Amino acid sequence: MIRRTRVFPAAMASLGAAVLVVAMGGCGSGNDSNSADKNTNSRGPITYVQGKDNNNVIRPLIAQWNASHPNEQVTFKEQSDQADQQHDDLVQHLQAKDSHYDVLNIDVVYVAEFAAKGWLQPLTGQFKLDTSPFLPATVKTGTYNNTLYAAPQSSDGGLLYYRKDLVPNPPKTWDEMMSDCSIAKAHKMDCYAGQFAKYEGLTVNAAEAINTAGGEIVKSDGRTPDVDTPAAAKGLSMLVDAYKNGNIPQQAITYQEEQGRQSFEAGKLLFLRNWPYVYSLATTDGSSVVKDKFGIAPLPGIDASKPGASSLGGHDAAISQYSAHKATAFDFIKFLTSEETQKTFATKASLAPVIASLYDDPTLVKQLPYLPTLKNSLANAVPRPVTPFYPAVTQAIETNAYAAIKGDKTVDQALKDMQAAIQAAGS
Amino acid sequence: MSVTSGVSANDKAEQQAQAPAPERKRGSSLHRGEGRRGIFLVAPTIILLAVVIGYPVVKAIVMSFQKDPGLDKATGMFVSGGSAGFSNYTHWLLQRCGTASCPPGTLGSEFWDSVTTTFFFTAATVVIEVILGMWMALVMNRAFRGRGVLRASVLVPWAIPTAITAKLWYFIFAYDGIANHILHTHILWTGGAWASRFAIIIADVWKTTPFIALLILAGLQVIPAETYEAARVDGANSWQRFTKVTLPLVRPALMVAILFRTLDALRIYDLPAILTGGGGGTGHATTTLSILVVDQIRSGFNSAAALSTLTFLLIFLVAFIFVKFLGAHVVQTQQRQQKGTI
């Protein structure tokens, strides 16, 4: 008993010390906007941070760079393969002003957040990058507040997979696709599916429907919601009506990318909206019964003159504000976005290039036959809302779109709530 | 301890009880010489605890009174928000976003729903697990061939990491999964509000019932066989033997099991996060408090700190009620049991 009372002050003292540390830490975390001008000309070893390198493509590229840059060696820091965890890892290191995170590979949806937090070196002045070879939509993903903060590194867009043995001509419009659903019915198949489970994929699909119909989710400033409009209602209604009348099967409300792919490969689905990765799997998978029976097309539009507006996936490369060797970092970004490197990404890892001309490169098209279609899709692509509040905005979109598709609330009510929730996110 | 070598443990206890005075004297003389060294010896532990427990708790509370960075409309850059007062707390408790109530689709609008969901999961899983666990423990307590194998195999679900359990059940409850196949149904297990809740309860019960069963089994094994024989001689039937002998005697172990499981279930995260992603129903039918905290972390640390402090207080309150009204009894019963007065 006595011993415990003696220990108690010691415990209180250390707790007090902890409080002191907290208070001091709080003082230190003020804004220092000066780091923008620091280390801009300095060269030396840097670190490149990226999610899991599934296809072993980045390590050989870095080895190639290191061979020709003995004094500016690049170290590869590999993150996990989960997008959320990659985001959190970057946030932790940037918040701590880690000077060892030099070049960052960022999911396109988080560029605005990192830029608004002052973590990214603007690509202006001596860091000005020639963006003319890039697909315009991919440049938009790296742009916040009219300033380029990140260079497009890889892209991704939605494609319509269809059964060419059953539908000789792919539907050009949503209405055509809906009328083709009678073919699915005749063959006792499901007609159309995308990603409608309540997760990021639903934001992608709902945004595509809304953008295709001419609506938009936020205005160009990135925070003013603009989704409570007749055009947006028309877009969301396409999904809602199709789910109600069974053209989208009821289980599609649980589909992420993989469930839709499996259903399509099993021959149970006539139309599937998915990413290009499905192409090679559906052609080679042992379990695929549609190996030479499917084709790809751009997403269907509202009228035949213009295909649907795909959402954009992919990653951008940016220089950390806290990098000690920004000149080297900028050179490395130029290396990552060069035509040679982009070709390697495409052939080794099936990553969609960001350079427009590569989509017409005959050797690449031979290996990745979907490239011309994807180019068409990307030409009409719209980035997901470029907003520093992306996690809250995507939550607002997916929750309300989910409720609308399931019929829990009307389209008008869902869009009204979506508008209010995006507004609340940015305030 | 070396002083008492050669004296049996029972005698020592008697000494302590009967002659407290010399004992204390010896204690204080020990203290004078070794007390300071004692402080030095425990200091590393205290400092370590202060750093790994004290610092995060204090930091979270400090953070919860600061506003999340807001956007400077002119520059488009984040600026630190300054002091928040209690606004982070009222944001959650009153579900206020700015001056209006939080619209559907914001995390703020899901607070009380997720409180309800969390407590519902806790109540449902603990009740089912205790009933099943009790039954399993009674079976395992019997003497029969292969008892060791049964006891080991019952532990298998408990030994599997929750993340893997959740993924297994995710496949079972897929639309084309085994569950729908066996039941000949077309239930959207991760889509419907109640279907998704049941899916989580089923998976949780499958996983944690063995834990409860083993804790109860440990309690059952200290009950002497003579008590049952005596009860039988007195003409008690098996139901009476269960309610009058087994239940009161196993109560301390049962209480510990319930306390552990309740606190564990209140912070449930991994199972619903992986199995349903917090979805179902109108979109958040299986969002528990912990899932809400993790979601909020990505949109603002300070608000998330307030939410985790609220979660901490809620769980602390439940634990307090348990220990105050039920747990105190646990300690007493155990002490009495040790002394052999029961």
Secondary structure elements and their pairing?
The complex is a heterodimer of chains A (427) and B (342).
Chain A: H1 2-28, E1 46-50, H2 58-68, E2 74-78, H3 83-95, E3 103-107, H4 111-116, H5 136-141, E4 143-144, E5 147-148, E6 151-157, E7 159-163, H6 174-179, H7 181-186, E8 190-193, H8 200-212, H9 230-244, H10 257-265, E9 269-274, H11 277-284, E10 294-297, E11 312-319, H12 326-336, H13 339-349, H14 362-367, H15 371-379, H16 390-406, H17 411-425
Parallel strand pairs in A: 1-2, 1-3, 8-9
Antiparallel strand pairs in A: 3-11, 4-5, 6-11, 7-9, 7-10
Chain B: H1 9-18, H2 20-64, E1 70-71, E2 78-79, H3 87-93, E3 96-97, E4 100-101, H4 111-141, H5 147-154, H6 156-159, H7 162-172, H8 178-183, H9 193-221, H10 225-233, H11 238-266, H12 270-275, H13 289-297, H14 301-339
Antiparallel strand pairs in B: 1-2, 3-4
Helix pairs in contact in B: 2-14, 3-14, 4-9, 4-11, 9-11, 11-14, 13-14
Please, could you describe this protein's structure?
- The complex is a heterodimer of chains A (427) and B (342).
- With 427 residues, chain A is an alpha/beta fold.
- Helices cover 44% and strands 12% of the residues of chain A.
- Chain A contains 17 helices and 11 strands.
- Chain A has a 5-stranded mixed sheet with strand order 2-1-3-11-6. In chain A, strands 8-9-7-10 form a 4-stranded mixed sheet.
- In chain A, α8 packs across α9 (230-244) and α9 (230-244) crosses α16.
- Residues 1-33 of chain A have low confidence and may be disordered.
- Chain B is mainly alpha-helical and 342 residues long.
- In chain B, the strands form 2 sheets. Chain B has a two-stranded antiparallel sheet.
- Chain B is globular.
- The two termini of chain B are 29 Å apart.
- Residues 1-27 of chain B have low confidence and may be disordered.
- The interface between A and B is large, with 63 and 54 residues.
